[in-house]
Amino acid sequence: MFNEWFGLFFALINFILVLSMYRLFGKTGLFVWIGFSTVMANLQVVKTVEMFGMTATLGNAMYGTAFFCYGYSE
Questions:
Q1: Which residue of 45, 53, 60, 65 is surrounded by the most CB atoms within 10 Å?
Q2: Are 72 and 29 in contact (CB under 8 A)?
Q3: Where are the alpha helices (DSSP H) in 1-74?
Q4: 18, exposed or middle or buried, with CB in 10 Å at 0-12, 13-18, 19+?
Q5: Is the dihedral of CA 67, 42, 40, 52 positive or negative?
Q6: Which of 2, 52, 41, 43 is closest to 18 using CA atoms?
Q7: Phi, psi of 46 (to 5 degrees)
Q8: Each residue of 18-56: pLDDT tens digit?
Q9: For this UniProt entry, which segments traverse the membrane (predicted)?
Q10: CA distance 41 to 24
């Protein structure tokens, strides 16, 4: 149960950080976030969580925000 809450909380924090980067710096902040999230996802991949019956890593949510930013920045 702890892992599910931890994973959901971590995903929520990631998306709040993406929105704040966009709010503070505009598209430049999104481009910076793409590089930052790629590096951080590689560091966070060692922590695994089980969410809704599937095993995932914390880096998955962080890496997913890079695709979110890339799609929005064009």
A1: 65
A2: no
A3: 2-25, 27-44, 58-73
A4: buried
A5: positive
A6: 41
A7: -75, -20
A8: 999 999 999 999 999 999 999 998 998 888 888 788 888
A9: 6-25, 30-46, 52-72
A10: 22
- Asked whether the beta carbons of 11 and 3 are under 8 A apart, the reply is no
Which residue bears the tokens 């930052």? 36
Q: How many CB atoms neighbour CB 69 within 10 A?
A: 21
Rounded CA gap, 13 and 19, in Å?
10
SS3 state of residue 53: coil
Residues 6+ apart with CB under 8 A from 33: 17, 18, 21, 65, 66, 69
